[in-house]
Amino acid sequence: MERSESEETVHIFTQLGEYLIDSILRGESIDAIKLIVQEGAPLWYQTESEGMSALHAAAYMQNTELVQYLIDEGAIWNSVDNLKYTAADVALSFNNETIYTIIRNAGIRAEMLLTLLSSRSEIEEPSSLMIRSEDETAAASTNAFLKSRLNFIKDKNGQEICVVKVGDEEIGVMMGWEQGIMQETVKNLCEDHPSSDNLKVLNIGFGLGIIDTLFQALPTRPITHYIVEPHPDVLQYMKRLGWYQKPGVKILERKWQDSIQDLLEVGGFDVVYTDTFSEDYNALRGFFEHLPDLLAGPESRFSFFNGLGATNALFYDVYTHLAELHLADVGIDDRFFQLKRSYSLPSATVPASGHSERRLYETAGDIVLYLSTNQPNPPVPFELQDQMTPAVWLTRLTALANTAQRYSKPWFERIWTVTGILASLILPAVLYNVIYNHMNVRGADGNVDFARLSEMITFALFIGVFLFFFTPIAIWKFIGRKQVDRLVSKWNGADRMNYGQNASSTWKAQSPGIFRNSTILTISLPASMKPTSFHPNAYLPSYINGPIDPDASYYYPYKSEPGLPRMSVIGNVPLHIDEKRGFEDSRV
User: Fold this and answer.
1) May I have one GO cellular component term (predicted)?
2) Residues 176-189 pLDDT 10s
3) H or E segment at 161?
4) What is the pLDDT of residue 71?
């Protein structure tokens, strides 16, 4: 059957794309690569098996000149492979700052252009089609958020949390773990401020009131403290806490866009802070443009919660620099402070099993399987599907179970063990009197303590019987464990060869015990694959640690399959979204 014209075009592009990537990985000269590109090889093409693009391949080969050429020719700076890594992430893995910077700067230029086109499209008739994915849920739409019900509750650790329901999920609007970030923010905003004795403060977005409480707790309370908060549930929460009665506090019950004229009339703020929910970067940039009129003068200070693109180091870096450039456009001299925060993953335990069964438990980074030859093998966990075919998975589990079972005879081991225990206890007890009486009859020396001597002989008999029964089985089990360890070690070595040290999973196996006839297989996932405590199955990179709040896994959104968390996207890349996530290096 002949291909249609469109199918033939796709086939040609696929062949050219594969040829281009293969040529880069073979180390072909840059002139040869240029010729392939000039022949029409698509720079946007990504391999089906790995999702690798030409830019990924060039970064992997650490060819700086080629990376620059591909960027100049229009390679997509923010494309991600099947493991959700960008080409810049590949460069970072080699500590290649030069290539990372080239790709990052390309991202900054692209986003600057996109922002410019977006702003111009508001006042001009569009001459081209711009594709943008719109998220109309409360997580990304201000209007939907303001119509949603918020819940102010405490987790089991007593921390205040504010959540909004989006579909079947509850998403954290503000969490108690942000306290430390807000403390450092207030410190940098207010410490040594020339007007510290009569501060005028403006905060956009109350949330849990963490930063507003810190402003009120300053050694000298602000003489004027404006809070802009439009959500009716938050306003009721503020009333319950008595914020409407606090001296110097003025609350504007509407969006900042609707309050800006009133704020401009007040003007002259010494400190301005904004941390809104469900607003994108375009809204934040719009707020930047009002700063020259809101701030009192050169000594005034401004800050915002910087969670821009926080799920990826490259996206975070690009949007941080983008914010710097836009702040510079309005005359703001910006400084970013690194806040080192330590988060820990909640501990997870796997219950032991004494039965012949197979169970699957997912902990904070491990997959634990209970395997038995009496049960069918489980399917490949989705975390491993990019690295493990069903055939290889089945072969490994079958080999592991069979090897372990050769050194496991449950009923024989249990009968032998019970017999050994009984013999070790009963034989010495029965023979004690026999030994004592025999020695007492034949002993001529009345100074000999026959009772003590009989006890020593009986104890030696106990040790002998114990060793007689348990030494063979211990040696047998030890040999079995070594066989299993050797098998698993061979697989780990093969995975490291195929996928690299930092991208391969690590297998560990525990042979069947005397009272457990299942083999325990623990697969530790690499950082790129393991779920974190933000939410189940969230594929966040290794430099983002989980929040210390153990309930965060429930209150943050989750994704039930491999990929980036749900958010506003363009294509498959999260863009223009201010995410409230915990990450190790927070910037304010």
Assistant:
1) cytoplasm
2) 777 888 888 999 89
3) strand 160-166
4) 95
